[in-house]
């Protein structure tokens, strides 16, 4: 057993400075080896490696290797005693003259740029694959100085909208601007939007200002692997001044600290670029649906650099939840709800709970609550495989379960999910009334006798089931 009390041999890498490194920096630390018993050793090999992976392809940027704990007196092997060993090391990251190194990018979903240290304890008469190993990631940044003069210039983009609904030749003039074209992570980029209208207009959340990240694959940037919104600000349009009908809005876009910096051609397989996107909805709020021709899109490229650090650093680690990730979680939740809805099965009405009572008592159900009790029912046309008991897959005004396989019984049960369980007779009455009402209204596609008889039989079964609530 080693001095630390471990029953097995243990190896680790401890860095003196767990921070960002730049090309040419020296990485200092120790390889920690805790031996449970005396071990015949050749050496410890420490390798610093950088590689790029994207679209099932990979490119190795570099590999630098040093040897630690070598045998004394030029021997091939020696015995390391059973104790805790610390072997200090220094290894230099390649300089810009030696190799163009892109910034680390391990948070991308379709490509990665990784740098890591790999320590291998090479024992005597053991193959490398069987040797004890440990890996430690390094964050290496390309030196991109955002304080250079050509970055500290205002950039702007303009747009003119001529609404087709106006009688006169009126136009809406818009301009978006940023005070500089480069910024570091953890800083805030102000975006100014100016609107010159020809009349009064008011609309909430009409202006959307986004920080967009785009990941390209290949040297020509022809293949876009991902394009996501990192941050979004919403602004209101409130133009009421009859003197000039104008408005100036300001959106402060925070640059997340975990998003990779801009990566150009030095990324080999991948490149990362950013831009500010402004979307202005000039539709009148009283007119629905929105006319897509009255949306204005403007974009401003922006470079995310690595030096110097912001004057007022804002720790955005806890605030960094990329909008794409949030959207995906919402979509996943919706898929889970849809799957759960489809699997629900009650007797002949397709609800998986043993009884309707248990379903109504389940307060943790994630199934969306419908907005009305009247549901659209389509009866399959005549022909083979017609199921007279299963209505269609369309439920009126229930978007989260649209096109699911939930029949009327479940729909009405859901509409009364907040009702007391004792009032189950009302549910059955509503179920019967709803089916009859729809059968009457849709006489052109009438319910045949098989459907009516089967449904009434199912209602009787259901009612009997409800009258005998299960015990928890």
From TrEMBL:
InterPro entries: Arrestin-like_C (IPR014752), Arrestin-like_N (IPR011021), Arrestin_C-like (IPR011022), Arrestin_domain-protein (IPR050357), Ig_E-set (IPR014756). Keywords: Coiled coil. It comes from the Eukaryota. One of its GO terms (biological process) is protein transport. Gene3D superfamilies: 2.60.40.640. Residues 168-309 form the Arrestin C-terminal-like domain. The keyword NADP does not apply. Residues 313-347 form a coiled coil. The keyword Electron transport does not apply. GO terms for cellular component: cytoplasm. SMART domains: Arrestin_C (SM01017). Residues 373-394, 438-472 are annotated as: Disordered. This is Arrestin C-terminal-like domain-containing protein. It comes from Phycomyces blakesleeanus (strain ATCC 8743b / DSM 1359 / FGSC 10004 / NBRC 33097 / NRRL 1555).
């Amino acid at each position: 057993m080693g001095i630390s009390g471990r029953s097995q041999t243990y190896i680790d890498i401890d860095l003196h400075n767990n921070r960002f490194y730049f090309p040419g920096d020296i990485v200092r630390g120790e390889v920690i080896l805790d031996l449970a018993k005396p071990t015949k050793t050749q050496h410890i090999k420490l390798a610093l490696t950088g590689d790029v992976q994207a679209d099932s392809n990979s490119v190795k940027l570099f590999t630098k290797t040093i040897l630690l704990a070598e045998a004394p007196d030029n021997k091939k092997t020696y015995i390391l005693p059973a104790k805790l060993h610390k072997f200090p090391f220094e290894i230099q990251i390649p300089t810009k003259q030696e190799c163009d190194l892109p910034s680390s990018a391990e948070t991308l979903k379709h490509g990665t740029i990784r740098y890591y240290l790999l320590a291998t304890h090479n024992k005597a008469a053991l193959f490398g694959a069987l040797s004890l190993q440990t890996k430690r990631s390094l964050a290496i940044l390309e030196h991109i100085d955002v304080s250079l003069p050509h970055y500290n210039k205002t950039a702007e983009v303009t747009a003119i909208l001529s609404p087709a609904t106006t009688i006169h030749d009126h136009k809406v003039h818009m301009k978006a601007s940023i005070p500089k074209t480069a910024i570091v992570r953890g800083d805030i980029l102000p975006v100014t939007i100016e609107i010159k209208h020809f009349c009064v207009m008011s609309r909430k959340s009409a202006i959307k200002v986004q920080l967009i990240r785009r990941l390209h694959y290949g040297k020509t940037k022809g293949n876009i692997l991902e394009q996501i919104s990192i941050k979004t600000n919403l602004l209101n349009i409130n133009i009421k001044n009859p003197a000039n009908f104008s408005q100036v809005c300001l959106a402060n876009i925070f640059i997340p600290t975990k998003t990779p910096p801009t990566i150009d051609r030095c990324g080999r397989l991948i490149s990362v670029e950013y831009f500010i996107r402004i979307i202005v909805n000039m539709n009148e709020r009283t007119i629905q649906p929105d006319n897509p021709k009255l949306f204005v899109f403007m974009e401003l490229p922006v470079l995310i650099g690595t030096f110097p650090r912001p004057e007022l650093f804002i720790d955005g680690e806890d605030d960094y939840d990329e909008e794409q990730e949030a959207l995906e979680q919402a979509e996943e939740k919706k898929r889970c709800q849809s799957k759960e809805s489809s699997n629900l099965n009650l007797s002949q009405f397709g609800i998986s709970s043993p009884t309707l009572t248990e379903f109504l008592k389940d307060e943790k159900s994630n199934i969306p609550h419908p907005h009305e009790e009247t549901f659209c029912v389509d009866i399959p046309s005549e022909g083979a495989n017609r199921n007279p008991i299963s209505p269609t897959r369309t439920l009126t005004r229930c978007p989260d379960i649209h096109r699911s396989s939930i029949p009327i019984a479940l729909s009405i049960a859901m509409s009364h999910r907040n009702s007391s369980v004792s009032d189950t007779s009302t549910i059955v009455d509503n179920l019967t009334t709803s089916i009859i009402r729809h059968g009457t209204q849709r006489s052109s596609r009438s319910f045949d006798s098989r459907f009516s008889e089967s449904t009434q039989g199912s209602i009787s079964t259901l009612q009997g089931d409800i009258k005998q609530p299960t015990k928890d």
